[in-house]
Amino acid sequence: MSPPAKTSAPYKLGIIDRGLILVFKGINYLIPWHKLPTFLGVLNLSAFRRELRAKNLHDTYPSWAEQGTSENPHMQNNEWLTTRNSDGLFNALDAPKMGCVHMRFGRNVPRQFTNKPSPEEMMTPSPRLVSKELLARDTFKPATILNLLAAAWIQFQVHDWAQHENSKTEKYKIPLPPGDKWEKNNDMRVEVTQADEQLDKTDAMTPGYKNENTHWWDGSQIYGSSEKETAKLRGSEPKGKLTVDKEGFETFLPRENGVPLTGFNTNWWMGLELLHTLFVLEHNCICDALATAYPDWSSEKLFDTARLINCALMAKIHTVEWTPAILKHPALQVAMNANWWGVLGEKLHNLLGPRFGESLSGIPASKADQHGAPYCLTEEFVSVYRLHPLIPDDIAFFSAKTGAHKINYSIQNVAFENARKPMTESNLNFEDLFYSFGINYPGAVTLNNTPDFLRDLHTPDGRHVDLGTIDILRDRERGVPRYNQFRRLFHMDPAKDFLALTGGKKDVAEKLSAVYEGDIEKVDLLVGCQCEPLPKGFGFSDTAFRVFILMASRRLKSDRFIATDWNEGTYSRVGMEWVQKQGMKDVLLRHFPGLGPALKGAGNAFAPWTKIGSSKEYTGKQTTA
Ligand code: HEM
């Protein structure tokens, strides 16, 4: 038996790192990073990332041995050396369980700061009061830098990355504010998050929670998080393809009792229907291209390679398109491109190849590195992706051919079993739906903008929940520090009072103070993030952004298939070109060519598209601000 695996040396700050961090701490005392000239802003972000890598990656297991050893679990099939395993095994070869399904979430703050609070602390102030006073949407506030596809995209990605399990037996009773008639019997109960078994004393104070998905960026929302599931989704399709159903001219995800058959199908709505369908079609199209180029490949080889390509394409789209769309700041445009192409940029990357390491040539093809802590997603990462205000109240639907306004549907009427209703009921096709998503706005991630639909949600499995209450409760129960403490642990200054937190908005500060009984330290992370002033061009808070600075590159850098094994041997020549030469617009146009006119003038596929024909005259709030 080999000793416990430790796949990478502890991340130590060198003298240059320390110098850089110190210099920028000095500069930031006077000027925040986002107000610096672009070049300095990018360097500032790099200084943040160095410090975060050194101080903000914390394992929640008692030892590295929990990640497995090079012999245990035993790799029975050498196939996993060159392709993804659906359970997430064997990505790190000497720690084969790292990042696999049912491994625990880690932490971005030391565990001594993540203790589970007492029942009283957990319910103070009542999460329902916070939801009613501070989260409930008063009027729809649109995010005008984005389109609705951007909202669907991030949920689509989150479903690849993270899902906690709820207890089947235990529930919290949520205190209701006076006069709050939640249900007839005036009772609100929410399932406890299922904690992992206790492995050591620390777990008694701060439980570990397992991920129901693989932690890797491996398309598990499409392919499933187990080999068994993947086999089911492929069925008996030849040439490495995923199963689809054809109805007339449209291709749909197959369904069982009305439920879509795909890797992750909970919290379903039309946005997910669109993106799951699109990337299943993309997988099948990649299979065709590979089969043409490599006619002797088996169905297995075609599937494995197409999945690698499809996952890398999604990771690239997220890195160089979605993120710069929601963080529309010049330093971010450079920094996110640098994650993929390096600071030398795409042209030089293509000319010289990825030979100069992570900083100059980008993360793909650089050496995989876990920076001293086993790779996994974290509780704090899940917290900052609670972006439920992105969901609007209703969607305006248009013809992709003429731009004519057809009909509006409330979100409720395109959610769960209704996800395809506008197609079956109103004769709209996928092209119309994509076009409509391209010109509808999502909600802005801000206070009092969580839709009623999610705050009074009835799910197909019989739950009746207020997602605003749940968003607050979950962070508290999982020991995620409240806003000010979170900022300290992410090396930021805490807000000194309510007025400072809101950037001088007196009415909001008073409302916050009333809910939190004058104690700024009690403000929940999600609430603080939704009311702090944003850097110019940002779609969410600078505080949440600190988690992104660290984890966006970590998801790429820790993954052997994106880092060390990024080469033609793994992906094939066709595969490398497929990923490197294409983006979201190419994917959309390949499958839905009628979107051409709307996408023609659009800069970023996740920003509002060009309105065509008579949709320009529509004045509804869904697409006009
Ligand atoms: C119609 C749209 C949506 C529905 C119906 C929905 C529903 C839900 C539900 C029921 C939960 C689980 C609550 C629990 O802990 O018991 C949840 C969690 C979550 N949702 Fe949403 N959601 C939607 C959109 C979104 C969007 C756009 C995002 C943006 C990224 C998002 C991010 C999350 C995250 C991060 C969690 C926590 C997952 C975890 O605890 O592991 N959701 N959502």
Automatic annotation (TrEMBL):
List UniProt keywords, sorted A-Z: Dioxygenase, Fatty acid biosynthesis, Fatty acid metabolism, Heme, Iron, Lipid biosynthesis, Lipid metabolism, Metal-binding, Oxidoreductase, Oxylipin biosynthesis, Peroxidase, Plant defense
Its Gene Ontology biological processes?
Answer: defense response; fatty acid biosynthetic process; oxylipin biosynthetic process; response to oxidative stress
Keyword Cell inner membrane carried by entry: no
Q: Which CDD domains match?
A: PIOX_like
Q: Which residues cross the membrane?
A: none
- Pfam families membership: An_peroxidase (PF03098)
PROSITE patterns, sorted: PEROXIDASE_3
- List cofactor names only: Ca(2+)
One GO molecular-function entry: metal ion binding
What InterPro entries does this protein map onto?
A_dioxygenase, Haem_peroxidase_animal, Haem_peroxidase_sf, Haem_peroxidase_sf_animal, Oxylipin_biosynth_metab
Name the SUPFAM superfamilies for this protein: Heme-dependent peroxidases
The reply on keyword Lipid biosynthesis is yes
Protein name according to UniProt? Heme peroxidase
Tell me which species this is from. Polyplosphaeria fusca
